[in-house]
Design brief:
Elements (H helix, E strand, L loop, with lengths): L3 E2 L3 E4 L4 H4 L9 H8 L7 H4 L14 H17 L2 E3 L5 E8 L2 E11 H5 L3 E2 L6 H14 L1 E2 L3 E5 L3 H13 L4 E5 L3 E8 L2 H11 L5 E5 L1 H17 L8 E8 L5 E2 L1 E5 L7 H5 L3 E5 L10 E5 L4 E6 L13 H11 L13 E5 L3 H10 L5 E5 L4 H9 L10 E2 L9 E3 L4
Parallel strand pairs: 6-11, 8-12
Antiparallel strand pairs: 1-5, 2-3, 2-21, 4-5, 4-10, 5-12, 7-21, 8-11, 9-10, 13-20, 14-18, 14-19, 15-17, 16-17, 16-19
Helix pairs in contact: 4-6, 6-9
Length: 408
């Protein structure tokens, strides 16, 4: 069983939601955030990436940045751009992209569930990134960005969600980045909230889809509050948006290499892959990836006998890592090696061609997307995916929901 709780959300005034909502802090850099927030005093970037309001030569990790975030949050609340609910509610958050819809329950989830591995992960985190979000949470005294979670769908939960959407009007309904429509409903009926809380006790586990650093940071702040004696019911929880796994789509996470291929490159590829010049730019099935060398597109089909049963090692990104990046190019750590970079699938194969054709990059690999069933299987096995295995679209916007830790 897992614990989910309604909470007194901090959220935008209805008429300002589309101006407040911003892309997640970790998908844009400081300059991009500054450009996106230009001439928009309501933008959540003023809180989530507060360095945009400070001198450009100041480090985004300076303590002044976190204090500016807290000051801006207080100002947003004082001006009524954001407000805090008087009662605890669940919320529904629907995103529609290219005609496909996904709806999550916005809730607070349990630090204890994460510690007890009822909220499961599939990625490692980096300490310096955790420190950044911990400073942000601690100084703002709030979970300032939601965690993107998933669960195996439950019929009763899905029925409640669909019925509520059909019978009630959303409080927010707007279209934003990449033509994604965002809608939010407030479940302001105590009986429904109680029923949802009870139904989630029959859900075996929640899975982190995206937001491992935010999760670790939120949990560590909660544990810090326990140790300092500054603990309350809110510090034992963190902000999450929980989607049924069958509504989610993982996009491909492609790779580009700076290293020139060796003279026997094609022969070495053929040891593990069937290599065919096809002109196809996106793989059509698991086990295939596409290679672009500046002159042509090739289909690389993994030989069946080379695919292990292990839930991690059988992933296409893991096979490419082993048989190509490590064996041929001797790239052991793709997190730090400067010869490799990663391109989210939303940028398309045109971006891969552009990078290689520029001459700065020598090869591009267009990957088949990792599937949600793969993600759940890896997490259930308590294993870790290779870095940059998943790219989720659409992105959950920040600024629509905050959770007050209530310790200040």
């Amino acid at each position: 069983m897992v614990q989910v709780h309604p909470f007194k959300g901090i959220r935008p005034a209805e008429e300002l939601a589309d101006q407040v909502a911003a892309l997640p802090y970790d998908v844009v850099n400081s300059q991009e955030a500054k450009d996106l927030a230009a001439d928009n005093p309501y933008s959540y970037f003023h809180i989530d990436k507060a360095e945009i309001d400070l001198p450009a030569d100041l480090s985004p990790y300076d303590e002044k940045v976190y204090q500016k975030a807290a000051d801006n949050l207080a100002a947003f609340l004082e001006k009524g751009w954001l407000f805090k609910e008087s009662e605890a509610y669940f919320y529904l958050y629907e995103l529609v992209m290219n005609g496909r819809s996904q709806t999550g329950i916005v809730a607070c989830t349990s630090i204890s569930d994460y510690i007890d591995e009822k909220i499961k992960k599939h990625e490692f985190t980096r300490h310096e990134k955790e420190i950044d979000r911990m400073n942000h949470i601690r100084t703002c005294d709030a979970n300032t960005s939601p965690i993107f979670l998933s669960y195996r769908p439950q019929t009763e939960i899905q029925t409640i969600i669909k019925d509520w959407q059909q019978e009630h009007a959303p409080v927010y309904d707007f279209t934003s980045y990449h033509d994604v429509t965002h809608r939010v409903w407030v479940i302001d009926q105590a009986e429904t909230n109680e029923k949802l809380t009870k139904l989630f006790t029959d859900v075996d586990a929640l899975y982190i889809a995206d937001g491992h650093h935010r999760t670790e940071s939120a949990v560590k702040i909660g544990l810090e509050k326990r140790q300092s004696g500054d603990q309350n019911s809110e510090t034992e929880q963190f902000l999450s948006i929980i989607f049924p796994e069958d509504e989610l789509a993982i996009w491909e996470y492609n790779r580009v290499l700076k290293s020139a291929p060796p003279a026997d490159f094609m022969d070495r590829l053929a040891e593990n892959y069937q290599v065919t010049k096809t002109g196809v730019k996106k793989p059509e099935k698991a086990g295939d990836c596409q290679l672009y060398d500046g002159e042509a597109w090739y289909t690389l089909s993994i030989k069946p006998e080379k695919v292990p049963n292990d839930p991690v090692e059988k992933l296409d990104v893991a096979l490419l890592q082993k048989f190509v990046l490590e064996d041929i190019f001797e790239i052991a750590d793709i997190r730090t090696d400067k010869r490799i970079d990663f391109v989210g699938g939303i940028r398309g194969t045109e971006e891969l061609e552009k990078l290689v054709d520029s001459g700065d990059w020598k090869l591009a690999f267009s990957m088949y997307p990792t599937q949600m069933t793969d993600l759940l299987a890896v997490a259930d096995a308590k294993k870790i995916m290779p870095p940059k295995s998943t790219w989720f679209e659409p992105k959950l916007l920040s600024g629509l929901f905050l959770h007050d830790l209530e310790t200040k």
